[in-house]
Every structure is written in structure tokens, then in C-alpha cells.
Automatic annotation (TrEMBL):
PANTHER family: FAD DEPENDENT OXIDOREDUCTASE DOMAIN-CONTAINING PROTEIN-RELATED, SARCOSINE DEHYDROGENASE-RELATED. Residues 34-413 form the FAD dependent oxidoreductase domain. It comes from Capronia coronata CBS 617.96. It comes from the Eukaryota. One of its GO terms (cellular component) is cytoplasm. Gene3D superfamilies: D-Amino Acid Oxidase, subunit A, domain 2 (3.30.9.10), FAD/NAD(P)-binding domain (3.50.50.60). Pfam families: DAO. This is FAD dependent oxidoreductase domain-containing protein.
């Protein structure tokens, strides 16, 4: 299982680098810390932030280790869409976990949109955060019909979808509301868009202000198999080792190289996104006030945010990505594009959106990034059974933005000792790391991505 690639391509977000990108707080690596956090993406940064921001008491010493530039993993190369899943996977969640847990999963994600907003407001983060309405548009009946049927059936049985969710059944209205050509139906609900790299580097900067030590370009090579007699784990890097009683592993897709327990639980999955803009002098296109998912088939979809500068960031291109497993599955090379994806995004807005036909809109930036796909499609959050003091939050399966803040807040409370168990937090039980879950052998990530709806 490889470490992050040495030479990743820049994304649009990363093309405005922060002065933290190559930051090392101290020349030498500290030898001791209360907490070592591995990974400086959203998961690592938000955990460190939550560990340190609490008023009162002595702040723990926190060292954040990052293999490459700060926040240059999936968080620095994603679609910027904080999109709670309020309906699309609800029926499979209901089948797998029962209606109450399915509702809990949905409302957790919905609440995360508000929590991110509160964080941005409280910290006054300059990160282009916008509260939007996400419109989920269906262009193909193979995916529209079962989704709508499940929604109606569940509603009739008393399943509690959030009140904010609005269903548009009439194709004419769906096309009118969304602006997407050929829409068959649509759902809409509150979501958000953000410049993820700016948000997360702001959190890292706050942590440094509270005394954290950030060490970029310091890949962790291993974590000891057991703690020493004083209960400290050894975190080994090429620049030396650090001993700490608590280690938070927020290394996303790369976690199996550090914790073999996750060898068959989290697999790297390469995704692609791009930025599209109307060139200077081009015909102005209508501003999109919504963010989107656009579904073309059972597993073919794109997700899209509209930025206040008029540009669009869109990710997905599953029609190309899924053509060949080698394009994405177990692929951690974010130095290369996915074949056919650039052509796919060519003329994208003109093809799909009313009013954009003569805009001349074109791709300005295109990039890949590595997601961590979970074997049962649920993130892995909590203290590792049998390894007291090792905490994990990873495997967000391409859907971290409406989940990570809450998970990081919970991990920080565990690490600080404010709570003993995740059951005392808001984290839905399917996310918890348990012995039983770690023992499960099924891996449905590939099958799910390839279009079927496997059940565990
Ligand atoms: C193209 C693309 C588009 C996406 N779009 C969206 C979207 O619109 N909405 C959404 O919700 N989600 C999206 N995602 C998923 C989202 O980006 C992730 O869920 C989220 O960023 C995960 O954050 P993280 O901090 O866990 O992982 P990362 O951001 O990947 O951070 C992990 C960090 O750990 C570091 N690391 C790894 N191994 C080591 C090691 N051994 N030593 C030290 N450091 C190490 C990595 O270098 C990396 O910086 C997208 C992902 C991609 C790739």
C-alpha cells in the first residue's frame, strides 16, 4: 500500500497556495507530544482544531504530520460541495440499518451543513462559503424511477425525510427550476459550497496559533504495533520518531499502510474534477444560484457547484471513470488524469444547461484526487479496538464534506476524555469502529461504484 504520490498535479483550489503549504513549525521533529495527528486534510485539521479550541484547562501538545504539502490530498482537490444525502441512499440505509438509524444518518448530514456554516461564521473564515439549494436532477428513468418509488413508499410508511427536502415530480417544472435540459424529475434541499483548501488551511493556522506543531513533507512510515510500558505509541518517520499516548490517524485512503486492520476495509479510489469558466469576452451565461447533482444512470453522475465569480466546479465524469477499473479502483496516482475525462468536460455546460449554449465556457483547470472508499460504504470513526490511544477517522467514500466536521468533533472529545464512548456523541452507529465491523469480510465498494445496489 503506497504513501501519497510525490508529484501530484495542482487543483484549482491548490493553485492559490497558502504560506502553510510547506510549513514546518520547528526545524527538528519533536520527540514527544500528547497527541500526534497524521494527515493535514479536513479530518486531521478539524480534529486538531477541536482538540485545541476548547477554553480552559491546559491545551495538549499536538503535532500534525503531513506526507506532502499541507492539505494537498482529497480535501485540496475535491468538488467543494457540502452536499448532505437526504434521499438518494435513504432506502438502502433503511434496508441495512432500519428506519431510525437511516433517519439518523440523514439528519446527521443535514446538521453538518449548519455546523460548517457556524464554524465559518465563528472563525470568520474567508473561504467563499455559500449556503445553497442543491438540486438533484434525474436525466434517466433507470435511476429516477426507483429513487422516486422508494421515496414515495418510504414517505407513505412514515419515514421522516427532513422537512427541507422538496420533490419536483413534473418534468417541466424540474427543467424550469434546475435549468438542466431534459430533466425528468428533481429533488432540492439545503447544501453549501466552499473553497475547502482555504477553510482547512485556516483551521491549521488557528491550531498553530494555539501551539500546534505542523510538519509537512514528513510521511509517517509506521506506527508501533503496541504501546511502550508508559503507554506511548511510536510514530516513525524518515526524520525521526515521535512518542505519544494518543495518535489520530486521518490519512484517508492511505490508512492501510499504517494500520493493517484496514487493508481490506479502505481502498484508494481516484476521482476527477474540473473548473469551467466563460472566457473574458465570452457571452455571459446565466448565473446558477443552485448547486447540483446530475444523474445519468444508476451510478453515472456529476456534482457541481456554482461559484460567485461565475465559474463552475464539477466532479464526477463517471461515464469515463467507470469504463475501466484501473482508472479509479485501488489507484492512488493523483499526478495523472483519467483517460477521456477532459473530453467529457469539454462543452459540458453548453450541453447541459439552458442559456449556456453560446457562452464559450471552457475548462480552465482539471485534476484528480484520491478518495478512501470504505468496504461497507460507511466512514470508520473511533478508537481502534485492542489499540487504546489510536483513533481513526477515514473512509468517507467520496462524501466527506457533510460528515467530517462532526466526526472530528467527536474524535476530539474522545481524545480529550470528555466522553468515553461514541454512543455519547452524535456519530451514527454505522460509522463506529467495532470488532465485529472490522471482522466483516464483504467489500461492496467496487460493486456499488459499478452500479449495483449490493446489500451486506
Ligand atoms: C476529485 C474529488 C472530488 C470530491 N468532491 C467532493 C465533494 O464535492 N463533496 C464531498 O463531500 N466530498 C468530495 N470528495 C471527497 C472529500 O474530498 C474527502 O472525503 C475528504 O477530503 C477527506 O478528507 P480527509 O482529511 O479524510 O482526507 P485527505 O484530504 O486526503 O487528507 C489525508 C491527508 O493525509 C496525508 N497522509 C496520507 N498518508 C500519510 C502518511 N503516511 N504520513 C503523513 N501524512 C499522510 C495525505 O497526504 C493527505 O494530505 C471528493 C474527492 C475527490 C478526490
Amino acid at each position: 500500500m503506497p504513501l501519497p504520490h510525490d508529484n501530484p498535479m495542482p487543483s484549482y483550489w491548490l493553485s492559490f497556495p497558502s504560506d502553510l503549504s510547506k510549513h514546518r513549525t520547528t526545524e527538528e521533529l519533536p520527540q514527544e507530544a500528547d497527541v500526534v495527528v497524521i494527515g493535514s486534510g479536513y479530518s486531521g485539521a478539524a480534529t486538531a482544531y477541536n482538540l485545541l479550541q476548547k477554553d480552559g484547562g491546559k491545551k495538549p501538545t499536538v503535532v500534525i504530520l503531513e506526507a506532502r504539502d499541507a492539505c494537498s490530498g482529497a480535501t485540496g482537490r475535491n468538488g467543494g460541495h457540502v452536499l448532505p444525502d437526504l434521499y438518494f441512499n435513504a432506502s438502502s440505509y433503511e434496508k441495512r440499518f432500519g428506519p431510525r438509524t437511516a433517519e439518523e444518518l440523514t439528519s446527521f448530514e443535514m446538521q453538518q451543513v449548519i455546523e460548517v456554516k457556524k464554524l465559518v461564521d465563528r472563525e470568520q473564515i474567508d473561504c467563499d462559503f455559500e449556503l445553497t439549494r442543491a438540486v438533484g436532477v434525474f436525466l434517466d428513468n433507470r435511476v429516477a424511477a426507483p429513487t422516486i418509488a422508494a421515496y414515495k413508499d418510504m414517505k407513505a410508511r412514515g419515514y421522516q425525510f427532513p422537512d427541507d427536502l422538496h420533490f419536483i415530480a413534473d418534468p417541466k417544472k424540474a427543467e424550469q427550476v434546475s435549468g438542466v435540459k431534459g430533466a425528468l424529475a428533481a429533488f432540492s434541499h439545503t447544501a453549501a459550497s466552499v473553497w475547502p483548501y482555504k477553510m482547512v488551511t485556516h483551521l491549521l493556522r488557528r491550531c498553530l496559533g494555539w501551539g500546534a506543531n505542523l510538519q509537512t513533507h514528513t510521511p509517517v512510515l509506521s506506527i508501533s504495533d503496541a504501546p511502550d510500558a508508559a503507554g506511548r505509541w511510536s510514530v516513525r518517520t524518515a526524520r525521526g520518531q515521535i512518542r505519544a499516548k494518543k495518535v489520530v490517524v486521518a490519512a484517508n485512503a492511505y490508512i492501510p499502510s499504517l494500520l493493517p486492520e484496514f487493508g481490506d476495509k479502505i481502498v484508494p479510489a481516484r476521482g476527477i474534477a474540473c473548473r469551467i469558466a466563460v472566457p473574458d469576452g465570452g457571452k455571459p451565461a446565466p448565473h446558477l444560484n443552485n448547486s447540483y447533482t446530475i444523474r445519468y444512470g444508476p451510478q453515472e453522475y456529476d456534482y457541481l457547484i456554482s461559484r460567485t465569480d461565475g465559474s463552475i466546479v464539477v466532479g464526477g465524469a463517471k461515464q469515463k471513470v467507470l469504463l475501466n477499473d484501473a482508472n479509479w479502483h485501488n489507484n492512488s496516482d493523483d499526478s495523472q488524469l483519467i483517460p477521456g475525462a477532459a473530453e467529457y468536460f469539454d462543452g459540458y455546460m453548453q450541453r447541459l444547461f439552458h442559456g449556456w449554449e453560446d457562452s464559450g465556457a471552457q475548462v480552465t483547470h482539471i485534476w484528480t484526487g484520491i478518495m478512501g472508499y470504505s468496504s461497507d460504504l460507511m466512514p470508520w470513526v473511533g478508537e481502534l479496538p485492542g489499540k487504546p490511544g489510536i483513533y481513526v477517522l477515514a473512509g468517507f467514500t467520496g462524501h466527506g464534506m457533510p460528515r467530517i466536521l462532526g466526526c472530528a468533533t467527536a474524535i476530539a472529545s474522545l481524545v480529550r476524555g470528555d466522553v468515553q464512548y461514541l454512543s455519547e456523541t452524535k456519530i451514527p452507529p454505522p460509522f463506529w469502529i467495532t470488532k465485529d465491523r472490522l471482522r466483516m469480510k464483504n467489500n461492496i465498494a467496487r460493486e456499488y461504484m459499478a452500479g449495483s445496489r449490493p446489500s451486506l
